[in-house]
TrEMBL record:
InterPro entries: AlphaKG_dependent_hydroxylases, TauD-like_sf, TauD/TfdA-like. Its cofactor is Fe(2+). It comes from the Bacteria. One of its GO terms (molecular function) is oxidoreductase activity. It holds the Pfam family TauD. It comes from Streptomyces spiralis. GO terms for biological process: antibiotic biosynthetic process. The lineage of its organism: Bacteria, Bacillati, Actinomycetota, Actinomycetes, Kitasatosporales. This is SyrP protein.
Amino acid sequence: MSLPTSTLPTPGTELDMHPGKPPVLHTSVHARGNAPGWAAEHRHAVRSLVTEHGALLIRGLALQEDDQAGAVLYHLAPGLMTEREAFAPRRTRAPGLYSSTTWPANQPMCMHHELSYTHAPPSLLLLACLAAPRTGGATALADATAVLDALPPELVQRFEEEGWLLTRTYHDEIGASWAESFGTDDRTAVEDYCRAHRIEFRWLPDGGLHTRQRRRAVVRHPVSGRRCWFNQIAFLNEWTMAPEVREYLIDVHGPDRLPFTTRFGNGDPIGEDVVQLINTVYERHTVREPWQDGDLMLVDNVRMAHNREPFEPPRDVVVAMAEPLHLAPCPPAFDENAR
């Protein structure tokens, strides 16, 4: 359904609400000539809609350039974050503004919450579509509270009690290198960061880096207080990889040196059936709206998981992160000290 302009706090707009789709706010033609000015004027109304619905796609700003998109994002969320611990490379397009994650166009990026394995993940994501893909490529969404309620209670309880464990082996074959991920090639700086963020680390003879970190799987939303399934348990698990990719990486590096995988908080492996179950629940709660040139999307990163669906290039979506959420830490994954 379309909500009439008179019900919105932003004159000259219309909010479309349809089952299976995120809310879409259509702006008037007058916004296109001065998108940053429109964002500054309507910041509070836009942010209120994001708080209410968990996400908002704004259509009609006609965003085309990095500078223009960056100015709009700054007005909506001053103080953009610098990304750390990226799992795959990005290009910095402007301060606080990044390209989408480098990932094969024909492979999906499954549902996840951005940087949920860090101590201070962003609570807000901002995405601007400068060039829409020919087909596919949507950034679909899933409500984290609905997902949690749909998962088996015993599975949720285990993850809530134990947390989840992320193991990473940084090398040049797949994903971000440790220098790209930590933003420095200084080993001492990386070690200091790991100790400060409760990440266990071990340098490998070939110059690579192996890390382990335990994080909470369920958190309470900072505004509503509702419990949210907030993690990357399925997305970063080895069973989410294409079978031929997983088999190749195990053959080359061994099962204990995969670029990334996830485990139960006590270190037990997570079975393929569990990963498939989580991804199936996500799909049942997914809403999507295809990108159009110039679109802008704001996502509550705690309330909503997001993905990136396969696409036919080109696709140019720039991303910014804002408003870090400081989470209570889980205990270390193991008793041994990081080396």
